[in-house]
Design brief:
The protein is an alpha+beta fold and about 325 residues long. It folds into two domains: about 190 residues, Beta-lactamase (3-Layer(aba) Sandwich), CATH 3.40.710; about 120 residues, no CATH class. Helix content is about 35%, strand content about 15%. It is built from nine helices and eleven strands. The strands form three sheets. Strands 1-3-2-11-10-9 form a six-stranded antiparallel sheet. It has a three-stranded antiparallel sheet with strand order 4-8-7, sandwiched between helices. A two-stranded antiparallel sheet has the order 5-6. α3 packs antiparallel against α4, α3 crosses α8 and α7 crosses α8. The chain is globular. It comes from Herbiconiux flava. Keywords: Hydrolase. Its EC number is 3.5.2.6. InterPro entries: Beta-lactam/transpept-like, Beta-lactam_cat, Beta-lactam_class-A.
């Protein structure tokens, strides 16, 4: 990857490193989300580095923020940027993708500046078959590594990423599409502090990006709000991404407060709808999503960086994220 991007990621990482003090940038509009505010403040005082942002979907007003301008490691959340690029290509009218030229959108090098009209529903591009290779193999999250099938359609790979943050599917799609293309798409969406930096690796060496992805809470909260509104590239692209993310089975963080079935919450349940993406790494828990209910909706992003030496520290972080989720639930339900 370009040295400038690698250097920028390291500088952002150092800037946002936990400092063992409460942030001076915690904002809580009108005193709402009191329980979450208190919980996050307690964590910040104990040395956990917190970045968070919550935005009202109706007004676009920032309801809650904690150092939301910082670009911090977000583990797998950057895979959303890959899903957006995949969805944009699938939804292109002529099969060349919203940002490519040639016979196949998945052979493209980078997105073009002028998106083309879209058609409803995926076409042949969604059914393009991609093979897994030895270089793509990776453990940890995902199902494909445990399956025997050697190749899958593009749309199935995207669904695996949305459902289980599948690392193998991520690497296969990135090999075909390219990191530069995903980066160009993110820049076209106005993202400056939110990046997918690399493929998924078992270990990161000195020549690799220091993190899989980085992001700012405000950019992520706004991005998810735009997905909800259907304005990320276009409505068809946004709808595809929302559909994949609604398959997500990880409700261990903020989403654990909503009482939804982790394995089946594509539709409304008690008037609640959720689509989200989580990120997990050593000392990192991160989530971005949209929760809507009878009274309104919130787009949110929360990232915690903490000392993971003791289980108690991890459990405290997860509990605080669920407490904040409870505040979101009370706001929308």
């Amino acid at each position: 990857m370009p040295e400038s991007i690698r250097r920028r990621a390291r500088e952002d990482r150092d800037e946002a490193a936990p400092r063992g003090r409460r942030s001076d940038a915690i904002e809580n509009d009108g005193g709402i989300f009191r329980k979450g505010f208190a919980s996050l403040t307690e964590l910040a005082l104990s040395g956990v580095q917190v970045t968070a942002c919550a935005v009202d979907l109706g007004s676009g007003k920032v309801l809650f923020s904690v150092d939301d301008h910082l670009s911090v490691p977000t583990a797998s959340i950057g895979k959303v940027l890959l899903l957006i690029e995949v969805a944009a290509r699938i939804s292109a009218r002529d099969g060349a993708g919203t940002g490519s030229s040639g016979s196949s959108s998945f052979d493209a090098a980078r997105p073009a500046s002028r998106p083309r009209p879209v058609r409803p529903g995926p076409g042949a591009e969604a059914l393009s078959i991609l093979n897994r290779t030895a270089n793509d193999e990776i453990g940890d999250s995902g199902l494909w590594q445990h399956l025997q099938v050697p190749a899958l359609p593009v749309s199935d790979l995207a669904a695996l990423i949305g459902a289980t943050s599948d690392n193998l599917a991520t690497n296969v799609l990135l090999r075909r599409i390219g990191l530069d293309t995903v980066r160009a798409r993110a820049e076209s969406l106005g993202l400056r502090r939110t990046l997918l930096l690399d493929i998924v690796r078992e270990e990161r060496g000195p020549d690799d990006a220091p993190q899989l992805s980085v992001g700012s809470a405000r950019e992520l909260a706004i991005l998810f709000g735009r997905l909800h509104a259907g304005t990320v590239v276009d409505e068809t692209t946004s709808q595809l991404v929302r559909g994949w993310l609604s398959l997500g089975t990880d409700l261990s963080m903020v989403g654990g407060a909503f009482g939804l079935d982790p394995l089946a919450h594509v539709g409304a349940d008690h008037g609640l709808r959720l689509f989200n993406k989580t990120g997990t790494d050593a000392g990192i828990r991160s989530e971005a999503g949209v929760i809507t209910g009878p009274r309104g909706g919130v787009s949110y992003a929360v990232t915690m960086r903490f000392n993971d030496a003791e289980l108690s520290g991890r459990l405290a972080v997860l509990e605080a994220m669920r407490v904040l989720g409870t505040d979101f639930l009370e706001y929308v339900y």
